[in-house]
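All the exercises in this workshop are built on plain-text protein records. A learned vocabulary of local backbone shapes supplies the integers on the structure line. Once this layout is familiar, the rest of the handout is easier to follow. An example says more than a description, so a record of this kind follows:
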Amino acid sequence: MILDLFAGPGGWSHALNVLGARDIGLEWDEWACKTRAMAGQLTIRTDVARYPVWIFSGRVLGLIASPPCQAWSMAGKRLGLVDQPLVHQAVADLAAGRDSREQLLDACADERSLLAAEPMRYLHALNTVGEPEWVVMEEVPDVLPLWRQYAAILRTWGFSVWTGILNAADYGVPQTRKRAILLASRVRTAEPSPPTHAQLAEPESLFGSGRARWVSMAEALGWGATDRPVPTVCAGGGPGGGPEPFPSGSRKTLADARDRGAWTPHPDSEVALTSRIQGPGWAGRPDANHPSDAPVPICATEAHRWSWSLRSNNQTNATVRRADEPAGTLFFGHRANECTWVAAPASGLTDGEQRSAPAPIKITAREAGVLQSFPAAYPWQGNKGQQFSQIGNAVPPRLAAHLLAPHLNKTFNPDDFTLAA
């Protein structure tokens, strides 16, 4: 079996399904378990820190672990950095067969910090029977020193190990999400698959097959797909409205336009959507600082032009990315971390015109899931907060598939992994 610790809503599991394999996920969160059940994934609802390992002994091919990142994430208080020496001590003790977790937990500033040591408890117990054959682990970048400690221990047990930071956008995920990765194998040289994408497209040459340009949010969400209809959009989404499809204060119009395919940037030329009454509506215009195949979706009126971007949170230093770029790292958990679509004014607008910008519109769970490379119809369970929490904590399935394929002796064909399927 493939054992998935802290399985969450199924990022690794969905990747395995694409590759023709399955795992057994251990997960505590009620709503993540319900999402997994609706997705048809095998799950044991349990506390990973308390579940006995001997149950799996003699049956584990691969071990996957994505410990909770809240204690380490830049979105939180990052008390995991304060607790890091304690976590290193727990890993060293567990690797030697000593369980000091209870004593160390009392000293931790964040009790979740010590969960990053839990994979070693499983690895030590399974190593006594020569298992697993391979290991894949993922966490936020600040956990890389801990992965290096794991690597040093695993090498003494006969594993080939690679650790490093990977950017999910380099593997076709429409999000520049960087993660600390550990890959280990007893039977092959551990190393990540070559990246398939780059910030700027790299043509095929004698030195390699080349890389495609990073996948943009608009591309992943189908905003601009040539096979989508382009209906007329009037104010309020119905006939008889004025020329501005997104009147100031409306929080519904972007969702209407998304659902009805009104966002259609075109790679080769300007495409304008004309209102039934008068004036222009949507237009896709190349930005002067970007190539012609990277248009910026723009909401335009006769006097106004607004380009839509995704703002990662409500903080002053929030990452803001245009729709023709990948998203920044998506993280959710409290109100300050709400991602919103915001209208950015084009140059040359007066202060009065800029003040008339359409109101920000919250991202939907479906959109956030797609930007994590989950299928659009993925069965997220729970209320909005519970769904967003699952999405923000999940590993992007498309990145996971690239990491898992070599260990399964599979050739991963990205064409089999449709972003908005």
About this structure: Residues 225-304 have pLDDT under 50 and may be disordered. The CA atoms of residues 243 and 277 lie 7 Å apart. Residues 217-325+331-371 form one domain. DSSP finds twelve helices and 16 strands in the chain.
